[in-house]
Amino acid sequence: MKKNLIQSLYIATISAMIIGCSESKKISADKTTTLKEAYKKDFLIGTALNTAQIEEKEPNSAALVPQQFNAITTENIMKAEIMHPTWNNYNFEMADKLVAYGQKHNIKINAHTLIWHSQLPAFVRRMKSADSVKLFFENHINTIASRYDGKVLSWDVVNEALEEDGTMRKSIFLEKLGDGFVVEAFRLAQKAAPNTELYYNDYNIEEPKKRAGAIALIKKIQAAGVRIDGVGIQGHWRIGKIPFKEIEQSILEYSALGIKVMFTELDLGVIPNPWDGNAADVNLKAEYNAKMNPYAKGLPDSVQAEFTKGYEDLFKLFLKHKDKITRITFWGVNDGQSWLNDWPIRGRTNYPLLFDRNFQPKPAYYKVIGLKK
Ligand code: XIL
């Protein structure tokens, strides 16, 4: 299987050369390269993995992931509802398997995520007393962060604590613990996981108001004498709406705080969003209708071209600031597995990643690789 994939990558590389020679930089025919190889001197190239992929039960991913990526983020298995389903019950099985997978393939692991208002276990969602929330909060961070210290590279310690206007998000944590909860989460994580990098992760924090909120939050953590090593800009964007100017400004402003900058959940949606924005709140939902699923039978060439250009321009920008960026992670391996087929409307056909539904590299893949030739 692995051999087949490598062969098909090789054939696809040559076809892309023939088709795209005039406009793309040459891809050398004598050897194939991969994303992680092409960018190895610049930043890590990551992907998000689901359960079947971690267990290597899905042969195409089992071959492709170690070939193309040198970083993994857990798509769901380290979220609280899965890792900590009831008060005293922790579910470590999949995360332990992931650690073994990372060691076997020499892939760095970013654990996602300790404190987040979404995908919380039911017992936490039902909590009324501040003391209970505090106890959950402390036990959760202490138990999980200490177990994986030295086994994972990093944690998204807090995910999505901000509203679009840069104020603190109205969540159970803000309500019960007050607005110091983010600093407290990092303080506990630092103690439990002294050998693990600690990050704040959020969507739309490239946008000016939310960015200002994130910068204030990061400064508050630093002012408290607590360690924060990096910031993750999720990067769930849509073609035609990629905020290049704000992305560049964000790279500069975040790195000026003395922390690493990462793009942690990159995907470029090509189908309509009911609210026409880039907000990636997993709790948003809308009804299906055929008009909202325009490319169910295939992607028109013009849209494919715009998508390819979007990735090309993004990676040009990332390369321009490679001294400040440590990782670019795609949110999923191939188009068929992307969460964007089911969010915010279930059952659509989206095309947001560099590999198609058959695990074949798309034109955008060659453009991204081609920037390094
Ligand atoms: C998504 C997963 O991809 C889905 O499988 C799950 O149903 C919902 O969560 N921002 C985040 C990620 O930080 O954890 C979300 O992942 C996507 C948006």
Compact summary:
This protein is α/β, with parallel strands linked by helices and 373 residues long. Helices cover 40% and strands 14% of the residues. An eight-stranded parallel barrel has the order 1-2-3-4-5-6-8-9, surrounded by five helices.
Report on this structure.
This protein is an alpha/beta fold and 373 residues long. It is 40% helix and 14% strand. It has 14 helices and nine strands. Strands 1-2-3-4-5-6-8-9 form an eight-stranded parallel beta barrel, surrounded by five helices. Helix 8 packs parallel to helix 10 and helix 13 packs parallel to helix 14. 44% of the residues are buried. The protein binds (3S,4R)-3-hydroxy-2-oxopiperidin-4-yl beta-D-xylopyranoside (XIL). Residues 75-76, 159, 234, 265, 280, 282, 339 line the site of (3S,4R)-3-hydroxy-2-oxopiperidin-4-yl beta-D-xylopyranoside (XIL).
Sequence-ordered SSE layout with sheet pairings:
Elements: H1 2-20, H2 35-38, E1 44-49, H3 51-54, H4 59-68, E2 71-74, H5 80-83, H6 93-105, E3 108-115, H7 122-125, H8 130-147, E4 154-159, H9 172-177, H10 181-192, E5 197-202, H11 208-223, E6 230-233, E7 236-238, H12 244-255, E8 260-269, H13 301-320, E9 325-330, H14 363-370
Parallel strand pairs: 1-2, 1-9, 2-3, 3-4, 4-5, 5-6, 6-8, 7-8, 8-9
This protein binds (3S,4R)-3-hydroxy-2-oxopiperidin-4-yl beta-D-xylopyranoside.
(3S,4R)-3-hydroxy-2-oxopiperidin-4-yl beta-D-xylopyranoside binds next to loops.
